[in-house]
Design brief:
172 residues; alpha/beta; 2 domains; 7 helices; 5 strands; 52% helix; elongated
């Protein structure tokens, strides 16, 4: 064992002696690399009016993705969670106001997926029938350009349902 330690120590000393003239060069190369990375750093831009932009609003308010159900060019479906409460979020990038059919689908999905809340996000708003049905079914209708304001409103006071869901999670 003592011979092995002596051999290891001797090998390490030889390596340091051999490599020491190259350390300033290596340090210089590392600095050049770091400088290049800082100068050429590109920000990943999120396209406004995209699924990523909508999700970014939720992330900034403490939501986490539990499941990605669908992502496409015309919309997306996610299950997000915050404070133990599951929220079904359906995003539609249609170029016309959303009618009542998607509201029915979102309400059914919320029940089927065991989510406490359901949010339907639209780029172009909602028809009168869709708004009426959403009130009856408890689906929140949010326009994309008001997403930040709606999430701020939620952050100011946690809805009772979220408090109940968070309390139930901590008890179990």
């Amino acid at each position: 064992m003592e011979k092995a330690l002596k051999l290891a120590w001797h090998t390490l000393k030889e390596f340091v002696r051999f490599a020491s003239p190259y350390w300033p060069v290596l340090a210089g190369l590392v600095l050049v690399y770091l400088a290049a990375m800082l100068l050429h750093r590109r920000k990943v831009s999120i396209v406004p009016g995209s699924n990523a932009a909508a999700l970014d609003y939720f992330f900034c308010h403490g939501y986490e993705v539990e499941d990605v159900l669908y992502q496409g060019r015309m919309g997306a479906e996610y299950i997000l969670s915050r404070l133990g409460a599951r929220t079904y979020v359906h995003i539609k990038w249609w170029r016309k106001p959303i009618n009542e059919r998607p509201v029915i689908a979102v309400s059914e999905a919320r029940s089927r997926l065991n989510c406490e809340f359901a949010i339907l996000v639209s780029q172009e708003g909602f028809t009168r029938k869709a708004r009426r049905l959403a009130l009856e079914t408890g689906v929140w209708l949010w326009q994309f350009n008001r997403l930040e304001a709606e999430l701020e409103r939620l952050a100011d006071g946690i809805p009772e349902g979220m408090k109940t869901a968070a309390a139930a999670k901590t008890r179990s």
